[in-house]
Each structure stands twice: as C-alpha cells, then as structure tokens.
Amino acid sequence: MLRLFILIALLISSPVWGADDKNVISDGDDKRLMLKGNDPVSYFTQPAPLAGRPDIKTEHDGVTYRFANEENKRTFLAAPGKYAPQYGGFCSNGLVYAIPLGGGENYKIINGKLYMFGGARSKAYFEMDEEKNVKLADHYWQTEVKGQDWREQSRKRLRMGNRVDHYKTNRQLAAEYEEYLKKKQK
C-alpha cells in the first residue's frame, strides 16, 4: 500500500500530471523545451528567431533553452529574466482573458520583454490597446495562471459563465479590429 501511495504521489508531482505553467515541447533529450527550440536571445538581436542547437543549451526555471551559439548562451545566463518569454511562452493575447493557450512564431518585444502570440491576428488584437492588454495579461498571469496547470486554467476560463467580464469572441475582436483600422486610416 505504501508503494502505491508513493507511486501516485510521484505521478501527481511529475510535469506530465502536475501543474505546468510553461508552453513547452519535447524534442529528443529535451523533455521541456521552451520556444520550440528557438534561441531566446535571437528574438532580440536578429530579424527572425534562430533555431537553437541541441548541443548548446541550459536549464532555467524548470525548462530547457537552446542557443544558436555560445555567445547567446552566455548573454542569456547573465540575465535570463530579460530573455525568457512572458507568461510562460503562452499567447499574450490569450492571457488578457486568463486563457493560457498557443504562443507560436509571432512575437513582439515590448519594453525590453519578449511577448509571444498564437497568430498574427492575436498579435494585432493585442496591439489595439497594448498598454491595457499588458496590464490585464500581467494581472491574470500573477493571480490565476502562474504555477497552475495551463490545461485546467484554460478549461476553467473557456466554460460559459466563467469567462472574464471583458471576454470577446474572435468574431467580436475581428469587428473591433476592422473599426480600429478604419480610425487609424483617417
């Protein structure tokens, strides 16, 4: 019975079953790989992120980061908080609604920090009121998402009746964006 209890405790506390507040993938020996293996420093220094090399990597905050070269690895190690993506690498626009999903190839550096987006539209919607959206995403990351399992948090907030008061559907955001573009063109 004690062995069964220990096995259950280990399973619950493992990253597979326990809380996971990072947007990671598994690739080769790297079971919790951040930024799909892209070099985090390159987001700040190159026109497009560079693929990191599996032989140049480091662990930070429970995840693995890969780097295109040793110089970028040293740069990261000197200030990992500067280069690690905000909100565990999840879509920043999703975090405006306390929903940690997505986070892909679209990104933006805002006030010296890396923000990921699930798509070009998510990024565009976020940019409509960037200052407000950063504040909302920061709030929900700190109060609801950080340290919680992203799957459970997403399920919780996607249920009808449990969405944030300012929740907007994709259709609503698209209409708002069209109006935003019209005003911007005037």
Verbal overview:
There is one protein chain. With 186 residues, the protein is of the alpha+beta class. The protein has one domain. 44% of the residues lie in helices and 17% in strands. It is built from 9 helices and 6 strands. The chain has a two-stranded antiparallel sheet. A hairpin with a 2-residue loop joins β5 and β6. The longest helix has 16 residues. It is globular, with a radius of gyration of 18 Å. The N and C termini lie far apart (72 Å). 30% of the residues are buried. The N terminus is likely disordered.
Describe the structure concisely for a colleague:
By secondary structure, the protein is an alpha+beta fold. Helix content is 44%, strand content 17%.
Low-confidence parts, pLDDT < 50 over ≥5 residues? Answer: 1-18
Q: Bin the strand percentage.
A: 15-25%
- In quaternary terms, these chains amount to single chain
**Cα shape:** globular
What is the radius of gyration? 18 Å
Count of separate DSSP helical elements: 9
Given helix and strand content, the structural type is alpha+beta
Encode the helix/strand succession as letters.
HEEHEEHHHEEHHHH
What's the rounded overall pLDDT mean?
A: 90
Which strand order spans the largest sheet, edge to edge or round the barrel? 1-2
Main sheet: strands, sense, barrel: 2 strands, antiparallel
Helix fraction bin: 40-55%
